[in-house]
Amino acid sequence: MTKTTTLLIFLFFTLLLLTTSLSKDLCHKDDKNTLLKIKKSLGNPYNIISWDPKDDCCTWVSVECGDATVNHRVTSLDISDDQISAQIPPEVGDLPYLQTLIFRKLSNLTGPIQPTIAKLKYLRFLRLSWTNLTGPIPGFLGQLKDLEYIDLSYNDLSGYIPSSLAMLPKLGYLELSRNKLTGPIPESFGSFPGEVPDLFLSHNQLTGSIPRSLGKLDFYRIDLSRNKLRGDASMLFGTNKKTWIIDLSRNMFQFDISKVKVAKTVNLLDLNHNGITGSIPVQWTELSLQTFNVSYNRLCGPIPKGGDLQRYDAYAYLHNKCLCGAPLQRCK
């Protein structure tokens, strides 16, 4: 056998091995079977109709797999923007390495938050938003210790906010806005074990007072607007904090704002439609505000001159007890 023949045979087998390696299905067979069950349960929707059992499921649209360290198991499932009339399939709980789970903008996705999600011990990112999910927010979410991001907004979820959510050590973002949640803000929300999460609870039916313990926390973004919360909210402010957004509008808060000092980092400050009393502090002239509104309260006295306070028109100050000065009428 000549050297040329030997070389050709070597190249042939090398190419054969390479082709076999490239054509190998990386997707774990259990994950593929589970995904096909999910597809069937959802009624074979348009966005994932291309899922073909002959193909490697790690190449399917809406699916991502991990690397060799997790044996290429499915780590992300994103079903969004589709015409689906179904509930969240229970089989989602049979993807044991899932880190990201998204069901979003599915107006006919109904039923409760699937209980089998409790099995996803590696879950980091959970977004179930812009759907028609009903029922309570399940307390078992507090057992998924790797959760960093929870978005359950724009649904029809009801009942109390489970206090167990405050047990999540890695939580950095909690979005529960635009639901039908009732009851108070849990007292446990004043003692998150890790970083202080961005907190969005707007457009619900929450009642009661803000737990005093929340005043110990330095929220970067907090939105409690459009609820039925009452009492004192002054503990959320402070010059030693790094708050960027604070929206308390359209509640029933009642406290004297005269001595409330706001962090210079605040970019959005919205307090409209409450029962807040006192006068606007001079310290507020030091703020750089992109959004500001204190209308429909019971504020009195002159609007301090300087900073951004005169940059806003009368709309930001209207319907108070006796506020005066630019941009309102001159003080008498």
UniProtKB/TrEMBL annotation:
Belongs to the polygalacturonase-inhibiting protein family. Residues 28-65 form the Leucine-rich repeat-containing N-terminal plant-type domain. It holds the Pfam family LRRNT_2. Residues 1-23 form the signal peptide. Keywords: Leucine-rich repeat, Repeat, Signal. Transmembrane segments: none annotated. This is Leucine-rich repeat-containing N-terminal plant-type domain-containing protein. The lineage of its organism: Eukaryota, Viridiplantae, Streptophyta, Embryophyta, Tracheophyta. It comes from the Eukaryota. InterPro entries: DNA_repair-toleration, Leu-rich_rpt, LRR_dom_sf, LRR_N_plant-typ. It is found in: Cell envelope. Its main location: other.
